[in-house]
Design a protein that fits this description.
Layout (H helix, E strand, L loop, with lengths): L4 E6 L7 H14 L3 E5 L2 H6 L3 E4 L26 H13 L4 E6 L1 H12 L4 E5 L15 H22 L2 E6 L6 H10 L3 E3 L7 H13 L5 E6 L6 H11 L4 E5 L11 H19 L5 E6 L2 E6 H6 L6 H10 L1
Parallel strand pairs: 1-2, 1-4, 4-5, 5-10, 6-8, 6-9, 7-8
Antiparallel strand pairs: 2-3, 10-11
Bound molecules: 6-O-phosphono-beta-D-fructofuranose.
6-O-phosphono-beta-D-fructofuranose binds next to loops.
């Protein structure tokens, strides 16, 4: 195929660095003589024909901004086979010959469906959850972790002043990565994550022992998707210990903000690699980071395999708190 025009979109939950990736994809493609069409609102935009031609200036001044200037959405219509065919027809009518899709698991599952229908797709991992197989870290994770760390540091100040326990709920529907790594980097005492069961009585005993030996705070970071819910932890501590507890739910603050240097560099390298891959005639893969290298992993593997939990990190939280 003589590649002339590619489409790009962001889909699912936004993550800091998506704009940087859009800039890298657009400019790399244009430098190589390709035309670039931005598809607004993810898969939804394929139905509503929200196609915008992108030149180098359209992606100027955006790399430092969180969110995605192309907007994003979660689209139920695309989940149906007839919906996918309609979307594909609209893409073809627009002259789009290949796609770069930036998003998480659901978005890349959609990408694989399009690839199977004959539309070449290269995916980029954009999700704060860091649950995608095929990359050490996804675009947005580093910024998000730093946002959570800022919150933990602030909470520690007030927690220590009152000698209180704090339960901090962070995002992560199926993945405890953010909870675990922020607990590790923030010096929290416990991480409660979906992948590992938590014994509440054990947590309470740990809390009492920590305060008894002179600690002035006790911070439990809970992933929103963990089986043991924030409310249950709070109620248990109130009923079974004499220490005061408070709850903070960080919510969408975690998803916004200017991307960190790490995320900008990652997004730039991955965006460049995505276009190079298409130019080499390859597709059906997601570009990701492995060590210091950019690697391509088949979309089949990305969506069907899961990332192992870092048990060493989990043990370190216990050991060092
Ligand atoms: O997938 C990323 C994520 O931020 C999850 O951690 C979170 O559960 C979800 O998106 C929230 O989605 P929404 O913004 O649609 O409520």
């Amino acid at each position: 195929m003589n590649l002339k025009k590619i489409g790009i979109l962001t889909s699912g939950g936004d993550s800091p660095g998506m704009n940087t990736a859009l800039r890298a994809v657009t400019r790399t493609a244009i430098q190589n003589g390709l035309e670039v069409t931005g598809i607004e609102q993810g898969y939804q935009g394929m139905f509503e024909k929200k196609f915008v031609e992108l030149g180098p200036r359209n992606v100027g001044g955006i790399m430092q901004r969180g969110g995605t200037f192309l907007y994003t959405a979660r689209c139920a219509r695309f989940l149906k086979p007839e919906g996918r065919l309609e979307a594909l027809e609209n893409l073809r009518n627009e002259g789009i010959q290949a796609l770069v899709i930036i998003g998480g698991n659901g978005s890349l599952t959609g990408g694989l469906e399009l690839e199977r229908l004959g539309m070449p797709v290269v995916g980029l991992p954009g999700s704060i959850d860091n649950d995608l197989y095929g990359t050490d870290v996804a675009i947005g994770v580093d910024t998000c972790l730093n946002t959570i760390l800022h919150a933990i540091d602030n909470i520690k100040d007030t927690a220590s002043s009152h000698r209180r326990a704090f339960i901090l709920e962070v995002m992560g529907r199926n993945s405890g990565y953010l909870a675990m790594m922020s607990a590790l980097a923030g010096g929290a005492e416990v991480a409660v994550i979906p992948e590992i069961p938590t014994d509440m009585e054990e947590v309470k005993q740990k809390l009492v022992a920590a305060f008894d030996r002179g600690k002035s705070h006790f911070i439990i970071v809970v992933a929103e998707g963990a089986a043991l819910k924030t409310r249950e932890i709070f109620d248990y501590l109130c009923q079974h210990s004499s220490y005061e507890a408070r709850v903070t739910i960080l919510g969408h603050i975690q998803r916004g903000g200017s991307p960190s240097a790490f995320d900008r560099i990652l997004a730039t390298r991955l965006g460049y690699a995505a276009v190079q891959t298409l130019l080499e005639g390859k597709s059906g893969v997601m570009m990701g980071l492995s060590g210091k290298s950019i690697v391509a992993t088949p979309l089949e593997d990305v969506i069907s395999r899961s990332k192992p939990v870092d048990m060493v990190g989990f043990e370190l939280i216990k050991l060092l708190s």
